[in-house]
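This section describes the prediction task in plain terms. A model, or a person checking by hand, is given the sequence of a single protein chain and must write out its three-dimensional structure as a string of tokens. No templates, partner chains or ligands are provided. The sample shown here is typical of the held-out split.
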Amino acid sequence: MPDRVPRLARWILRLAAGAEHRDALLEDLAEEAADLARASGPAAARRWIRRQALASLRPLLLRRAETAGALVRNASMNGWRGFGSDLSAASRRLRDTPGFTLVCVLTLALGIGGNTAVFTLIDRVLLKPLPVPRPAELYRVGDTDACCVNSGLQGSFSLFSYDLYTHLRDAAPQFTGLAAFQANTRTVTIGHADGATPPETLNGAFVSGNYFQMFELVPAAGRLIHGADDERGAPVVAVLSHNAWTQRFQSRADAVGRRISLNGVPATIVGVAPRGFYGESLRPDPPQIWMAIASEPLLQPAAKLRDGRGQHWLYAIGRLKPDTAIPALESQLTATLRQWLGTIDLSRERGEISRQTITVIPAAAGVDNLRNAVAPTLRALQWLAGAVLLIACANLASLLLARGTARRTETAVRVALGASRFRLIGQFLLESILLACAGGAAGLAVSYVGARVIINLAFRGATDVPVDPTPSTLVVLFAFGASLVTGALFGAAPAIVGSRTSPIDALRGASRIASDRGGRLRGSLIALQVALSLVLITCAGLLGRSLQQLELQDFGVAIPSRYVVTLAPSLSMVTPEELPSMYARMQEQLARIPGVVNAAFSLYAPMSGDNWSTRIVVEGRSTPEAASWNRVSPRYFETVGTPLLRGRALTEQDRPGSPLVAVVTQAFAARFFGTADPIGRRIGQITPEIEIVGVVADAKYQDGRRAPREMFFLPYLQETSTSRTRAAAGGLRIDRSHYPQAIVLQTAGPRSGLEADVRRVLADVDRRITVRSLVSMEEQVARAFSLDRLTARLTLAFGAVALLLACLGLYGVTAYSVARRTREIGVRMAVGASRGRVVGTILRSAIGQVAAGVAIGMPLTLMAGRILASRLFGVTGHDPLVIAAGLALLGVSAAIAALLPAARAATMDPVRALRIE
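The expected answer:
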């Protein structure tokens, strides 16, 4: 009879009506339809049934919704009533198996802790704004990381001279305040009025008079620099950072108002910046003291950057008025820039003025130079940490699957007694989440230690890094969320598999349960761990080999037994007349230090990251081109270990008044002279007035990843027409390039106590010479590759943890397989199976899982190598040696992990195995 009801009406009733009413409804409709068909025809009967079905849809659905709601309410109430007992039971089960719980918590602590440590740094470095009121209103004028003094055109202007800054400030009323500050920090020698305390050095920065007012800061003590302090002729004042006040002045209240000397100039400390303020740029060793730009000519008499209209050395950040149109502001500032450029002497660059622009970007986080430098590394580390957490999840899922199988009899009994599957899944998941939360709590401790380790590795040699590794609220929430997601990830599959237990199993012995539910899933999880481990250890190998290539490359200078002394700019207080005798005494006295073989000085040292460049003209070429240059003393090339290839080096005979000479590098000679002999050819910055007398090998001074720059070296005391012009334009008696900033020492071997001897000797030569630091050349090179070392070491650590977890997982699954097949193995051995055959049987499954993992991991490894290619040096992303080494390491580790339980199975006593129930 129900077949007479049209298909559509039956489908509607199945959807809307409950099973208990559906058949009765269909029977009634069929009878009514039969009567109607006899009276009015089949078509009318079908139409009537459809109308009846549609009319009954709404009340039927309402009734089903009420029933479902009641069921949910009852289930929820029952669930909450049972939650306490389930939580208590889960805690008791974890407490009763302390070894299993400890392994799980440690595994999770490593996985969640690694992720949280990296996220802590992402939060502190990439996400955190400047510690000032309303940072979202801040905008930077300029968008590049150009540094530190630039005298030419920049294309996209980001560095400004003081004169240009004032023009831009006055032309942009959209800013409520536009402040300028030095692009880099400079060492300042601070002397105390008592004369008994030896001079100290602090990192300092010059700022405009509205700098602190623009940031709307409140001083921790005293007052901050204001506009009157930045007027020409104003007394020299300084503001200490809170850290400097705490560490150098022990937070003494009388530090404010204290008379000191800065680079030998009398000054007054007028206040202390608020706690936590590190300046406008997040960087290692931030400013410890701020001074007004007006005092720069006094404190840096050899530079006088403030007075140089074409000397660009300032960044600018301002607070923008609401609803300001950025494109219009950029056009306005660009027009002002081009107009200003037309008023200065640009010689041959005047035709490029129309290409100069200014971009305005948000600056809630300040100047982004450091953030841009470390962001790729932190993001890469977050991916690596995520892979380790995924391996940890797979490992724990394997362990829980094995544990759930071992508890199958208990679960079967509970099912037989009436426990629902929903309840069983909830209890399994509750245990997983408890483990994950315990692991997350332990992971917070791991993250704190890990974040500190990462900071120390990334900023090697820095004495102050304004990055707090303490987890913030956001980081704690991240760890909590990661714990919940992790618990759900590794607990869901074991919970579902564990709940599929038949009550019949309760009537059997545990070892007689023939089926192995979850075996395929366990094998898949092992393959996943093997695949990800292969990716991580191969990436660690590539990055480690790249770091080795970086550190062991030929820098063009000798690394062993070389030391670099960095000088504070207080030397610039020495008059030009004193320089020749002072330099001679410096070199002579330093060479007399026991163990010192050679001593030389230069404007900047190899691998210091510094670079001075200029446009030069070459005899016989019409177009000026850019080249790097340095000033060096006699015996410089012998001291740093750069081989002389042709001609001669610079000597004591190259003094003021003698013919201007230069030594060029091999790359310089090849670029400007090709295969011709450069000796005797002439170069210059305006006119070719300098004769090339020698060629030395190429050397790296700024970036170890790039090819050596084309460089030329000038004697320290010879003035070119350009340096004389530059000095005259700045009102200087001699250009600042004639004051060395680095001394290089060659010793007979490792030398302890060298820094104290150097400080003593230089103080004997002249007390105005202040040593900022002394490091070995090995340390100088190591600091240049801090981020590469950080990435390589952390990837190695992540790879080692991943390999360990994968091997533990393989060992656990193989051991579980041996335990589950104990009776089978006993029977085989009783009927004559050899031990080798038993071992082969056990290993076959493990080899299959590892092979599957390798098959999945190889494409991922090649893909990861392509992603890493831009970060590698001297090694390709698919280096066969590294991949082979990774496969060998994985194979040996997996073989050991699988052989241990297999060997134990082969030594099993068949009689005892057969007695196991």
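For orientation: The two ends are 57 Å apart (CA to CA).
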